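Query form — protein Integral membrane protein

QUESTION: What is the three-dimensional structure of this chain?
INPUT:
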Amino acid sequence: MFRSRAKEEKAPADKAPVNFSKQTRDPQAPKGRPTPKRSEAQSQRRSVANTPTTRKDAAKRQREDRRQALDRQRQALAGGDERYLPARDKGPVRKFARDWVDSRFNVAEFFLPMAVVILVLSIVRVPTIQAIALWLWLVVIVLIVLDAIVSGFRLKKRLAERFPDQNRRGAVAYGLMRSLQMRRLRLPKPQVKRGERP
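ANSWER: The structure tokens for Integral membrane protein are given below.
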């Protein structure tokens, strides 16, 4: 209990385990592994040098990675590359829904040009033309709703025939939302021509 610490510290050094292994090590590899090639050592040094040391560097690296991922995603949306598409656009079911919508004419995709024409007509200070513009609004809205209902049922039927065992949840709504956009503004870009069967 009252022994000096100097003796206690020296004692374990004397009792250190001695390795009597008869296995000899390669003198060229004293650490038990071959010396790495210069290219490997340089790449390891670069990766160590590129790791962020401060929170500011880590945030900067994260922003850079996010920007690159968004660039890849934008290019995928323009070209249709499945690997980098957002999660909502991935998969064969969504691709079929896109192609099915892109292969046909939809009333809703012409809504914007028709709306501009109707607005111009409603500005004119002639009561009969304003009444015609009002009726045109009603006709366009009814046509869009009817087209959406028919398209929804037909797309649902085609998806059930084509993908009976896969998850089709949300694919019809996805296709209908795509049909509301003008063809040239759709992302991912259309991969089929009008009239072409997907």
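ADDITIONAL NOTE: The mean pLDDT is 83.
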